Amino acid sequence: MPRIDRIELRIVRLPLVRPFQTSSSRKAHLDHILVRVEGESFAGWGECASPSDPYYCPETTGTCWQILEDFLAAAVLGRDWSTIEELTALYRPVKGNRFAKAGLEMACWDALARSSGIPLHRMLGGTRPKIFSGVSLGIESSVDVLFEQIGRYLDEGYRRIKLKIAPGWDVEVVRKVRERYPEILLQVDANSAYTLDDLPTLRALDDFDLLLIEQPLAHDDIIDHVRLQAALKTPICLDESIHSAEDARKAIEIGACRIINIKVSRVGGLLEAKRVHDVCQARSIPVWCGGMHEFGIGRAANVAIASLPGFTLPGDVSGSDKYYAEDIVDPPILADRGAIAMFEVPGLGVEPILDRIEARTLRRQSIERNARMTG
Ligand code: OSB
Ligand code: MG
Question: Does pTM surpass 0.85?
Fold first, then answer.
């Protein structure tokens, strides 16, 4: 029966090797919260990969910190649980705040899998020995710079290219990329930058044999996506709009999308990610694993969940060297010809490098069971 006696939160900052721009934000470094849970005979690490600003979703690093410290830690410290279902039930009254929950839940999966001596991918029911990855490429200063990036990652063996699009960086850019690379698997991600008024632009994207168009319309919409999907040949893939297996079921039932991007953090953790996967698999909806520029801990969790059988499309889980010169885990997570192998060791399968984490920590807080209980 695991019981968490101490939770350590820290904000860790890593610089990106190149700035990353989407329709909704531009980043040169990432601040993620690392969560360490500890009990008498177990410990585990999780990562809360929320953006620092509320431009992708409503959560931020700051809101995650507050929810973790004031509500999630208080709900789980000193309480008995033996399965992740029981753990998540302890904080069920907390609505939303899924990035915050995902960080804590991941640490508990790691602790549980480590203390059971089982690799996380096996505990989740994964069936693939390795996963295939594509890369997500941000909005660049020119198409030539974008071509350099595409060329580089295709040379490295990545299996598909995803282009971020936004008004002013869409049809003509995609046309040029498709002309230059007629054969590659290609998809685009709008991060909710369009409305139904942009139907002509979105229709024009139908000509380029794209695998999918990701989240073209509002972050909180599924209804307009139904109308858009009916007007397009290209499958719509939802990202921002899907927070749970129930959201996925409803979006699929009404015809808002034909593909779903599963992000562990967006849906509140690995357990819900698996449920989204199951809902999609039962309805023959392909899924792939999205990312939030995770550091090594969150990235290891992405690798593990992507081993489930319904993840039939290449994901955004690239090697961490695409983003970071120096990640915080050992072994580093790297792709070989666009494939990442499962870690066959207990837990997430990676060890945090403590002195690197220490050197990059901006803020730290330790919350103890006794401190909470005696006030
Ligand atoms: O919409 O998929 C997205 C990064 C940050 C926020 C949102 C998104 C992304 C990416 C990069 O596309 C995915 C990754 O490589 O981690
Ligand atoms: Mg996306």
Answer: yes
